[in-house]
Hints:
This protein is mostly helical. It contains one helix and no strands.
Amino acid sequence: MDYEKNIADLQAMEVKAQKTVKDLTALRESMARKASAALLEVKETREELKIKELLILDLTKKQQEIEFKLNSFKALYEEVKSARNKYVNLIQNSSQDLAELKERIKIIQNELEILKNESSEKDKTLHKFRTYFQEEVHKRDKGYGELNKLDYQRRQKKEIVDQQINEIEKQNVILLALEKEMLQLRHQYEVLLLEVLSN
């Protein structure tokens, strides 16, 4: 009776154990499926992780490139800003110089106007002087004409005077010769007279 009870208990335990085994087998299969799914998910996650790591690496490189470009742009911006400030200063200086030049041009234009007026007056004076000078040159030329005419007359008269002087000198030579001859004749006469008186 005890054996039967034990057997019944054991059978009940066996049934229960079989059921437990069956449940555990089902659970194991479920767990195996879950594990397989989990492993697949892990594999996919690892693949995804690798892809994301590659993506992160690529993005890191892009970030470095962007930072490098950003630093380059910052340096370029500072350079452009410095150049802009420089050109602004140059524009201000140029504007100031331009204003000074305009003022100087205005002063020079006024001076030029004064010089033009003075030049106009001087041109008038020069014209008057040239007219006067031409008149004086004409008078001088006329005077030269008269002077040449008088000089020609003087030379003609000088030639006549020179001819007359030559004639006078010739006459003087003749007179001297005649006087000499006359003295000789007188001397001869006196000698003859003495001879006559002595005889």
